[in-house]
Amino acid sequence: MQKISKDDVWKYKKYVCRAKCFDITAGGKIIVLNEQEAHQNDLYASHRVILRSGGKQSIAIVDVSNDLVQAGQIGLFAEVSSELGVSDNAHVEIVHMQRPDSIEFIKKKMDGKALAKEEIETIMRELMQNRLSEAELASFITSVYIRGMSEDEVVGLTQSVVSTGETLQLGRHPICDKHCIGGVAGNRTTMVIVPIIAAAGLYIPKTSSRSITSASGTADTMEVLCDVSLEIDEMRDIVKKAHGCVVWGGALRLASADDKLIKIRNPLSLDPRGVMLASILAKKKSVGAEHVIIDIPIGRGAKVPDKAEANDLGREFINIGKRLGMKIEVLVTDGSEPIGNGIGPSLECIDVLSVLNNIGPLDLRDKSCQLAGALLELSGKVKKGRGNDIAVQLLKSGKALAKFREIVELQGGKHNLKLSDIPVARYKHKVLADKEGRVFHIDNKMISKVARAAGAPNDHEAGILLMCERGDRVKKGDVLYEIHSSSESKLDFAIKALEGWTAVDLERAVLSSMD
Amino acid sequence: MQKISKDDVWKYKKYVCRAKCFDITAGGKIIVLNEQEAHQNDLYASHRVILRSGGKQSIAIVDVSNDLVQAGQIGLFAEVSSELGVSDNAHVEIVHMQRPDSIEFIKKKMDGKALAKEEIETIMRELMQNRLSEAELASFITSVYIRGMSEDEVVGLTQSVVSTGETLQLGRHPICDKHCIGGVAGNRTTMVIVPIIAAAGLYIPKTSSRSITSASGTADTMEVLCDVSLEIDEMRDIVKKAHGCVVWGGALRLASADDKLIKIRNPLSLDPRGVMLASILAKKKSVGAEHVIIDIPIGRGAKVPDKAEANDLGREFINIGKRLGMKIEVLVTDGSEPIGNGIGPSLECIDVLSVLNNIGPLDLRDKSCQLAGALLELSGKVKKGRGNDIAVQLLKSGKALAKFREIVELQGGKHNLKLSDIPVARYKHKVLADKEGRVFHIDNKMISKVARAAGAPNDHEAGILLMCERGDRVKKGDVLYEIHSSSESKLDFAIKALEGWTAVDLERAVLSSMD
Predict the structure, then answer these.
(1) Separation of alpha carbons A278 and A162, rounded Å
(2) Do A465 and A379 sit in the same domain of this protein?
(3) Total domain count for chain A?
(4) B135: which chain A residues are within 8 Å (Cβ-Cβ)?
(5) What digits encode the pLDDT tens for the residues B271-317?
(6) What is the pTM of this model?
(7) Nearest CA in chain A to B103
(8) How far is CA A137 from the centre of its chain?
């Protein structure tokens, strides 16, 4: 007997309706069919259909209604009517669609079997075609979370994600890049490393992200100084001129499938290791990176809890990077406390510019130079053991500052940027020590929460200015930190939010047995 | 330090907008906020908010738009505006909502840990409150599929599902019920068993489902004769009078959470065993069933492939049933071929009424009597070994037919229903044997597909009338089956759909080594 796919029968099925356009968006490609007519045609809510009209076609998800559309009508939200280019009463052909091939592969993963490269490619392709529902994607991510992914699968996923998007095609070498696993407040090393690497004559086309739950992402902080939403051609031109840039990755179309995957990962707070690795490496690969430093912060409150796990993760980065043609070095750093004094876009800019002016916070300066130095060594530009010194020299000589100013200006910022150009918040509130003691812990997450409550990152000037660091002895009434905001009510809100919790812990007089 | 939940900070957050009503449904409780304003308030797409207006409140999912709504406006689709009872320009307060508690428990299941009863209850409660997104639910079902569920968890899930809905509260005893795992075309035993059990003086408040992928569900078939969309009070009255009924479960609010779970299970074709067990048993429990027969068909094309797996599943039914206070017996039956002659609502009614008139297909009659007999024995009404005989007697005496007519009439159907009352399709097409041979296999899925292509189950008269059974010798040109439809074009469509596949297999002259 000839083998019949479950859905072959539908290849004959189609019917024609007249468009009824709703001039609003539905947040997805949704059409509304008359319930009775849809059922007569074996279409039910959440089925997929192909729509054809005047030579154009679109894929959409069916919703049904008894009163919204009559038999013979198809209700179109703006996403679909604009794609088809139709207006009211246009003829639209509705064709039953075969089930996405991905569903079989998602079930295969669910059942604990490894996916072949072509199967992963199919999932990414159908994801990009909007053929997969949120539920199907969530099912995929959940399966990957539970079943894990082999090195082969991560390589396949990375390549598939890269192929869904644009690539930078810089045409210059060597191309360097860096990535931090994140979670450390104020950790703006990127904005120091990029000018150092660029000043050393290497290329570093850096894409950064905006904040999701933190007080600021590198893209948010850089945006205080200049435009970060660049087109890929503008980015390429700037990197060719200045050897570096700091732009928002979200505005480009690099590794597009990843942006769609992230939408599912966020609400569930799921970040399966295989998907995380592929997501990071696809972004590096799509700018053509050859030498990459990965910063893995560990410690209390960091995403990676300890050295052993950081080493495991690091080895995976290195091995998979090698198979993708990238030389990767991993630095495990202390991420238990914030870096720098400022947390929030403007305050972080002040730290960065201070470091470039050789007057900034030492922790930010030292960490940036170590990472930049490792990247210089990895690229072969400088000898092993000399990277940090060269990086410090590029800072001291003012070459890194000059390079940073050049990049800011090319990205549409001020000429000859100075510290005094950075806006400072109008409203401030000092948080005082309520007893004598020693600063025992400064909590990344709490600091971020207070900064967000004060308006960061949308209010650039909002944030926290730390006045103490771990180990400092303080007296009752000493200032621990300032909360900044450009809105008085937001400042009040942040102060209220503080009730009941502590961002800066003072050591207890009596040792308690619990942390 | 006081323990702070990740979302406590938002308890202070709310803002007020003016309603802009879109007079259309969105297929879910979705609101549209101005993108910039939403972000300033730390709200992003897919966040949940509580909406308050004029003393009413609703929970909705945020969508954002740059041009659809201005700052200060909230776009409301019909689902939300009707729930809040607001029209344009009404003040709506938007309150940040804490993350559903379920997310933690879904992750716990993902991580392979068993869920406590209260945790399962929380998931079902939040599901009913529409607080869980499709992605979150899909993630839950996927986790249960991969990780499985312990007996304790299934008991907890069943009880939670029961408690989300109404219960019948019949107040009469003993209450019997039956369930078939499904997948067998034409298998309308329920419509024969219910009148037999009711005629024997027991109670059988039967809820049935509509077809999802088959040619007809019991509810679709019964609907040819009478109303099946009853309210729970009507159902109770009928069962008190007639001792039985056959109604559509979907119209009642029994085990409501299950209807929501099914929506997720269908698109993914996922039916994790634990969820399936809970889903079936919750429906039995919610009508107060004490004695339940479960029919598990096995064989080629059936949902359960073999006897060993049927026994495993059966044991789980029995054990979990015991813990829920239900006495369960499991019958493993042959499900490799259709039962009865007709497939499709009207044609199945003809089979059922023929059996009740003692002229019907023997396979449907025998299976129904065996199942009814087992239920009579299980309830203690008749002695072990006598059930089948008593069931046959109730058929032969015409008592079952009288009872069936009583039920049909109480459900709004004709008085004194006769075979000639059942409508027959106008258009028919005979499918002939293309060679001499012996009927080797009649395929449930293929038969269903042809019947659906002809219009079943929405076209009641559409379907297949089998003219042969497995083992029959046929000559070239003999009629294998008829396709029925009340629409000529649908009939043509079904004939076209048949090209290339075979619903009735004829044995090959030469034995092949492959099936």
Answers:
(1) 9
(2) no
(3) 4
(4) 134-135, 137-138, 264, 267-268
(5) 899 999 999 999 999 999 999 999 999 988 788 888 999 999 999 99
(6) 0.79
(7) A268
(8) 18
